[in-house]
Amino acid sequence: MATEPEAPGPARRTPPAQASRNETAAHPLRTAVGPAAGRTVPSPSGRGLPTRTGDSSPEWLEPAMAANGIGSFDWDIRRDVLVGDQRACTILGLVGQVFDRTSASFLALLHPEDAPVVRRRVERAVAELGQCGAYYRTVFPNGELHAVRFRGRVLADAFGRPSRMVGFVWDATVELHKRERADEQALLREERSRFIKEAARALSEAVTVRDVARVFTELPLPGLGPDGLALASLEAGRIALLGSSGYHSGLSDQFDRIQLAPTHPAAEAIRQRAPIFVSSREEYRERYPAAWDWAEESGRSSWAFLPLVASGRPTGICVVSFDDARELDADERTLLSTLGGLVAQSLARARLHDAEHELAAGLQRVMLPRTVPAVPGVSTAVRYLAAGSGLQIGGDWYDVVPLPGGHVGLVIGDVQGHDVHAAGIMGQLRIALRAYAAEGHPPAAVMARASRFLADLDTDHFATCTYAEVNVDYGVVYAVRAGHLDPVVRRADGTAHPVPVSGGLPLGVDPDEEYRVTRFSLDPGETVVLCTDGLVEARDMDLDTGFARLCATVSGELPGVDESPREPLEELADRIATQASDSEREDDIALLLLRWDGPAGGRAAQQLRRRIGQADLARISELRGELRDALRRWGVPDLIDTAELLSSELVTNAIRHTDRDAMFTARLYQEPGRQQEQGRARLRVEVEDESDLWPTRRTPGEQASSGRGLMLVEALADTWGVEPRGSGKRMWFELSS
Q1: How far apart are CA 250 and CA 359, in angstroms?
Q2: Which residue, 731, 678, 684, 479, is CA-closest to 592?
């Protein structure tokens, strides 16, 4: 290689430090060049670089450099000219190229990440008259990425100024490939480590067996790219396919619920509790000839059978398959084995979860009524929504109880707690309350007896409850509340609002608690909504907000009974339940809806019949309210005041002066009239008792507090009388409109 002539010396002597600064300013080398950054061009002679001192290289150096593939270079710092021998040009990829031999041109050929490093190291060596070395990447004209290492030393002139850098270069492409492969392996290991973490997180979030199967079949295996995934559980020697991907449905169905042959590799993996890897079809046919038909039909060429072992017991098998023959390395086998362990633990947990929830669901189904009895005159709809977490079983319940006289009782309640114990107490309380109501006891007595029953159980639990007796004939509701929520009523005009009900302590808190009854009326088509607190109260929603949202939902537009193929009440129940499902529920929800459809034919029944307990004086007030509603519905409101007064007198006399219950009956008769004219209405009220003592008309004094009942009846009734009735008597009066 031809040598470059030595740069002429300075015309005058300059101090070394000043000369160094001048050189730095005169040449851009200090800010843009590195020693090995200079690509050199071969000289015509092909000889090595000449030295500035004129000394020749030792004879043994050239063969040593040639044997090791080392080239030399010489960089004239002042003139910014790079020259090198043939090997250096080959290593640097400059053979056959047009190159101006400047350092700036060479820097443009370096990898953008490496050029600044090379430049800084060379600048430091020039400034310190020292040595430097670097590793950098460069792209050859054919597009190949190569790597080069160099080592150079800065030489000074006679005045101590940096003049030349001489050194060696050698090819480091093999090292580059090793680094690339190491980087790829490190990246792959990082991806696999991240995959294991993500798979562990996804599997830990999988709640049910179906969730585990879905997560497993959707997992991306980094660096493997399987063509088929299958997950199966082992049940009594048979495999139950839980999920698969990469297989057509016919093949999956064919191998679901089949006996696992002992010669199958999956069976061997389960027996040995260790993974089985098959790298080719030939290996499969040789090792497992009896099971070759399955492998051949699957169309795969290599497999990994991963046993699922949890708590020392095999629970299933994972199958990972590939379309091509593949010999998995140690890292890949470790990855698959780790994945199998994660799936096994997750599947065992999910199976336990499913079993617990199936048990809980069965228990809840037993505790709650299977069907709601049909009662003429009303329509009902019920819903039960389990909490979003836990065993999905608790103490919430609802019930619909047919009552004597064709009426119906509504029960909604919630036992404290959210576990099997609460569910057991709920079942006992539900049965007891249903029995009390079915016996015909008034609502206050039903609630009081239920409270004593729960207190006698001595469980340290209490329960909230609302019980409502609905008079199907007149749409009158008698509600009792024990620490529970008020009912919500949807009116005929579509509006909805809570109805305040007098409340008492929750059941079981005070066995002697007496509950008050609140009475309200329904018009035909109006609906009562009873629910537990899980519907209207949550961590992020207070009670007022929950009730407002419930009322808005209930008041939404609904089709008429004859306008929709589906019962509108069921649609309303679904609407409420759907709203409750929009958020994560922390508590169970019981929901009970009743719509009073009105009497048959759209006209109220013309009879009111009630039994009044001998010691139940409060029932008289309720009876007066029922009578008022009945007369209003019968179309004789002008008789209300008189009938209410006289009925109260007769019933009071019956229960005060006898030691038995009284039976009250009111009937309305329509007297025949002329054509197209309605006849006069006649009301007959009867009070029966079992006493042989007949009433005696008295003349009380001015200061007397009693004795005027028969005088009022005689003065206000159109007609009245007393009739014997077997054992007892019947007092009656009639009023005409």
Answers
A1: 33
A2: 479
Instruction: Check residue 583 and give its pLDDT.
Output: 53
- Could you give the percent of the chain with pLDDT greater than 70? 81
- Is pLDDT above 90 for 522? no
DSSP letter for each residue of 394-451: -SEEEEEEE-GGG-EEEEEEEESSSSHHHHHHHHHHHHHHHHHHHTT--HHHHHHHHH
Q: What's the token pair of residue 566?
A: 């589906």
Of 606 and 49, which is predicted with more confidence?
606
Q: What is the 3-state secondary structure (H, E, C) of 328-342?
A: CCHHHHHHHHHHHHH
Cβ atoms of 73 and 84 within 8 Å: the answer is yes
**pLDDT tens figures, 129-180:** 999 888 888 878 777 788 888 889 999 998 889 999 999 888 888 877 777 6
Half-sphere exposure of 297 (CA within 13 A, CB side): 10
Alpha helices in 151-298 (DSSP H): 173-205, 209-217, 249-254, 265-272, 281-287, 292-298
Q: What is the pLDDT of residue 173?
A: 81
| pLDDT band of 366, cuts 50, 70, 90 | low
Torsion of CA 706, 710, 715, 718, to 10 degrees: 150
Token code pair at residue 468: 């409502």
For the cut 80, the answer to whether the pLDDT of residue 394 exceeds it is: no
Tokens encoding 581: 């499902």
Q: Do residues 555 and 362 make contact, with C-beta atoms less than 8 angstroms apart?
A: no
Q: Which DSSP string do the residues of 567-629 spell out, in sequence order?
A: -HHHHHHHHHHHHHHTS--SS-EEEEEEEE--SGGGS--SEEEEEE-TT-THHHHHHHHHHHH
- The closest alpha carbon to 27, from 134, 136, 152, 123, belongs to 123
Q: Tell me if 85 sits within 8 A of 1, measured CB to CB.
A: yes
Tell me how far apart the alpha carbons of residues 336 and 108 are, in angstroms, rounded to a whole number: 47
Between residues 363 and 232, the one the model is more confident about: 232
pLDDT of residue 253: 66
Per-residue pLDDT of 182-197, as tens digits, reads 666 667 677 767 777 8
The pLDDT, as a whole number, for residue 481 is: 95
Residue 549 class from Cβ within 10 Å (0-12 exposed, 13-18 middle, 19+ buried)? middle
- Transcribe 119-163 into DSSP letters: HHHHHHHHHHT-EEEEEEEEE-TTS-EEEEEEEEEEEE-TTS-EE
Sequence-separated (6 or more) residues with CB below 8 Å from residue 435: none
Find the helix or strand (DSSP H, E) in which 644 lies: helix 640-656
The pLDDT tens digits for 332-343 are: 888 888 888 888
* 28, 126 Cβ separation under 8 angstroms: no
| Mean per-residue pLDDT of the chain | 79
Q: What is the rounded CA–CA span in Å between residue 208 and residue 206?
A: 6
Q: Which residues pair with 22 in a beta bridge?
A: none
Nearest-angstrom CA–CA distance, 600 and 517: 28
Gap between the Cα atoms of 584 and 576, Å rounded: 15
The Cβ of residue 498 has, within 10 Å, a number of other Cβ atoms equal to: 16
Three-class DSSP category at 665: strand
Bridge partner list, 593 = 381, 529
The tokens describing 698, both together, are 């008295």
Residue 600 CB neighbour total at 10 angstroms: 10
**Cα–Cα distance, 83 to 179 (Å, whole number):** 30
Angle subtended by helix axes 443-457 and 420-438, to nearest 10: 140
Report the alpha-carbon distance of residue 411 to residue 468 in Å, rounded: 7
pTM comes to 0.51
pLDDT of 314-329, one tens digit each? 888 888 888 888 888 8
Of the ranges 189-193, 310-314, 345-349, 495-499, the best mean pLDDT one: 495-499
Whole-angstrom distance between the N-terminal and C-terminal Cα of the chain? Answer: 137
Contacts of 95 (CB under 8 A, 6+ apart): 42, 89
Output 6 or 229, whichever has higher pLDDT.
229
